[in-house]
Design goal:
The protein is mainly beta. The chain has two domains: about 5-390, TolB, C-terminal domain (Neuraminidase, 6 Propeller); about 395-480, Macroglobulin (MG2) domain (Immunoglobulin-like, Sandwich), CATH 2.60.40. About 0% of the residues lie in helices and about 45% in strands. The protein has two helices and 35 strands. The strands form ten sheets. Strands 1-26-25-24 form a four-stranded antiparallel beta sheet, with no helix packed on it. A four-stranded antiparallel beta sheet has the order 2-3-4-5, with no helix packed on it. The longest helix is centred in the N-terminal third of the chain and has 8 residues, at about 5-10.
């Protein structure tokens, strides 16, 4: 079946529909880090460096880092460039991406708005040589600057694709209705998603152009452009198993849309808004335009500003695997969209009162999202029964210690959902018992215990959690 036929099938499905026979389990939204609150969070990332940390971007120009542990009490400031950032409305520090080899080179990339003149800056920074939780704010290397004629539609996503190239989304320049028709102008980066090679420089550029970009060496066309005709793609994401690039494009006055981005694709703005003619309002030329895979209208059952998410690949909500989870910033609705070669389904998961500004995943592919207004981070858990049988929510959970590496103390946390006897032992690299940290009967809850390695030598240690028939072991590194 052709793509156009697929589109016609699933665009008849109303966004407000709650019927989906394949999903019978109940989705629960829980506070991921109940002790933490952020100021206007706009991005959630992990570094992919096996440290199991979470990075939260605050719009004012601050990035905070903390261990992926629900009991964490306070984040650290990874980077503060608020004095360089023009923040407010749709401007600010908007995106963060870690180099695929971040563990070795320490490079990360950000997207932010600056003033005088107003412009978007794409920069590279480097982590401190002595502290993994602090970036060197003096290490900035500007890759690209794009003038912004208006204060809205800044785009803001930066993300590495499976090909190792950096992808960046730019809005159409702002105002309303794309007055300069930037979305259809291949001589500007506005209204596009670009693709650049940040590992090489070329001429006077601090990056190079991938040789297979669709508009390389074509007159009056920017070689950086990967796809265009986009109004304001606030959030996009790659689905690693399939390689698909999912993008949520914020609409004008009537329609929000989700696109599967293809190389060289023209996604229609400002000719069309979603599946509808915009300029002109009727009889527009749709030839050669890539249509959205889903649209929803501006109303309470839909929303007014789409927030793109991820195809779910985590473990907390098994019946939502392979589904694209996304939301609306204004209505607070959260949906799951699933595509196949022959069909599609869209399900309203939750109607919330949250201002959902962004989604993000951790190193284990678990999904999180941020409430812009309250500054809280949430995650999904599932309970009940799915079409594949009973889902068992773990009764016991051992979290990664923090900090790790540590000197001389670290916090070990765990959760139990029923009253039980708990034993936690510490072992050295030879498997010898170093200390029994906990040997007690506990009531349900989340517990924290500090392990003191003052009298121990540097090296690798393990801590083993035992409760009833459940056993889990994790590693930690003492560095003196």
């Amino acid at each position: 079946m052709k793509a156009a036929q697929i589109i016609l099938i699933f665009l008849t499905i109303l966004v407000s529909s709650c019927s989906n026979p394949d999903v019978k389990a109940q989705l629960k939204i829980v506070g991921a880090f109940p002790n933490l609150t952020f100021q206007q969070p706009v991005d959630i990332q992990n570094a992919g460096d096996e440290t199991n940390r979470i990075f939260v971007v605050e719009q004012k120009g601050v990035i905070k880092v903390f261990q992926n542990n629900p009991a964490v009490n306070s984040p650290k400031i990874f980077l503060d460039i608020s004095n360089r950032v023009l923040s407010g409305g749709e401007q600010g520090l908007l995106g963060l991406a870690f180099h695929p080899n971040y563990k070795d080179n320490g490079f990360f990339f950000i997207d932010y708005t600056a003033a005088n003149p107003r412009r978007t800056i794409i920069s590279r920074f480097k982590v401190s040589n002595t502290n993994l939780d602090i970036a060197d704010k003096n290490s900035e290397s500007v890759l690209l600057e794009v003038a912004q004629p208006f204060s809205n539609h800044n785009g803001g996503q930066v993300s590495f694709g499976p090909d190792g190239y950096l992808y960046v989304s730019f809005g159409d320049g702002g105002s309303g209705g794309d007055p300069d028709n930037n979305g259809q102008n291949l001589n500007t980066l506005l209204g596009s998603i670009i693709r650049i090679d940040i590992n090489e420089s070329s001429g006077n550029l601090n990056y190079s152009i991938p040789p297979d970009n669709p508009f390389v060496n074509q007159n009056d066309k920017r070689s950086e452009i990967y796809a265009y005709g986009l109004r304001n793609t606030w959030r996009f994401s790659f689905d690693k198993p399939t390689g698909k690039l999912w993008a949520a494009d914020v609409g004008q006055n009537a329609w929000e849309e989700i696109d599967i981005i293809k190389e060289g694709g023209n996604y229609g703005w400002r000719i069309m808004e979603g599946l509808h003619c915009f300029n002109p309002s009727t009889g527009c030329n749709e030839n050669g335009l890539e249509k959205p895979v889903l649209e929803y209208g501006h109303n309470s059952t839909g929303g007014y500003s789409i927030t793109g998410g991820f195809v779910y690949r985590g473990q907390n909500a098994p019946s939502f695997i392979n589904k694209y989870i996304y939301a609306d910033f204004v209505s607070g609705n959260i949906w799951a969209l699933q595509l196949s070669d022959t069909s599609a389904s869209n399900k309203l998961l939750k109607n919330t009162n949250l201002s959902i500004s962004t989604f993000g995943i951790d190193e284990g592919e678990e999904l999180y999202f941020a409430d812009y207004s309250a500054g809280k981070i949430y995650k999904f858990e599932e309970e009940g029964v799915s079409s594949v049988g009973s889902l068992i929510i773990p009764k016991f959970q051992l979290f990664n210690n923090y900090p790790n590496p540590f000197n001389p103390t670290t916090q070990i946390s765990y959760r139990i959902s029923e009253s039980s006897f708990v034993l936690i032992n510490i072992f050295n690299s030879l498997g010898e018992l170093v200390q029994t940290l906990i040997n007690d009967y506990k009531q349900p809850g989340i517990y924290n215990k500090v392990f003191d390695g003052t009298n121990l030598t540097s090296g690798l240690y393990t801590y083993q959690f035992i409760s009833n028939n459940y056993i889990e072991t994790k590693k930690m590194l003492l560095l003196k």
